[in-house]
Amino acid sequence: MKQESAAQNTPPASPSPSLHLQDDSDPQALWIFGYGSLVWRPDFAYSDSRVGFVRGYSRRFWQGDTFHRGSDKMPGRVVTLLEDHEGCTWGVAYQVRGEQVNEALKYLNVREAVLGGYDTKEVTFYPQDSPDQPLKALAYVATPQNPGYLGPAPEKAIATQILACRGFSGHNLEYLLRLADFMQLCGPQAQDEHLAAIVDAVGTMLPCFCPTEQALALV
Ligand SMILES: N[C@@H](CCC(=O)N[C@@H](CS)C(=O)NCC(=O)O)C(=O)O
């Protein structure tokens, strides 16, 4: 999906991201952008949510995961954001307010940073229903410097890895298919060729891995 070059806000790391990301309309509010498991399992209290996208980033299954969707011996693959001037990544932004802000940040620090190797980054989020009114949001991004980063691989190899891995939050295939389901719901304007190629590769390999009824039991 071609996008005009996005002005990318890359703020310095901030120990209190909410100071940089306050919602002008509600200083107590903070928006958190989810583009992977946060899309279907935020698991923190929030006051509002919007489907939409961020420009200047592409989603990639380039982060290893040895806890939620994999193990030390067989790391799974989960998503991160890659800076890409022509990129556009769809997801969900959640608004947290008042007490919810610290609760969400404490929870996500453990889930994303401590257990997942993600770091926080300020992004500009465009709500699907009002792209002319973008919002500042906090995103959790796994950079190449984090120890769990796996980097690029052919989509077929990524599919093979996903089919073989599971962790404390479930099978890696569930992670892939729930994200693919979300993208279907976003409509035809939401494209993710990387995700679609991995889903296609899984579809061609799944019958070789196990009969359909066993495959359905995986997720
Ligand atoms: N930060 C991305 C990716 C988050 C993600 O998938 N993180 C993993 C940590 S490795 C996770 O929370 N997994 C929980 C699960 O797989 O259910 C997002 O905003 O959704």
TrEMBL record:
Record's keyword annotation contains DNA repair: no
EC numbers for this chain: 4.3.2.7
Gene Ontology cellular-component terms listed: cytosol; trans-Golgi network
Gene3D superfamilies xrefs: Gamma-glutamyl cyclotransferase-like
Superkingdom classification of source: Eukaryota
UniProt keyword list: Apoptosis, Cytoplasm, Golgi apparatus, Lyase, Neurogenesis, Notch signaling pathway, Unfolded protein response
Region Disordered, residue ranges: 1-21
Bias-annotated ranges (Polar residues): 1-19
Gene Ontology molecular functions: gamma-glutamylcyclotransferase activity; glutathione specific gamma-glutamylcyclotransferase activity; Notch binding
Catalytic activity, as annotated: glutathione = L-cysteinylglycine + 5-oxo-L-proline
Xref: InterPro entries: ChaC, GGCT-like, GGCT-like_sf
GO BP term (any one): neurogenesis
EC primary class: lyase
Cellular localisation: Cytoplasm, Cytosol; Golgi apparatus, trans-Golgi network
SUPFAM superfamilies xrefs: Gamma-glutamyl cyclotransferase-like
Quaternary state and interactors: Interacts with NOTCH1 (via extracellular region).
Family named by the database record: Belongs to the gamma-glutamylcyclotransferase family. ChaC subfamily.
Function: Catalyzes the cleavage of glutathione into 5-oxo-L-proline and a Cys-Gly dipeptide. Acts specifically on glutathione, but not on other gamma-glutamyl peptides. Glutathione depletion is an important factor for apoptosis initiation and execution. Acts as a pro-apoptotic component of the unfolded protein response pathway by mediating the pro-apoptotic effects of the ATF4-ATF3-DDIT3/CHOP cascade.
Protein name according to UniProt: Gamma-glutamylcyclotransferase
Name of the gene: CHAC1
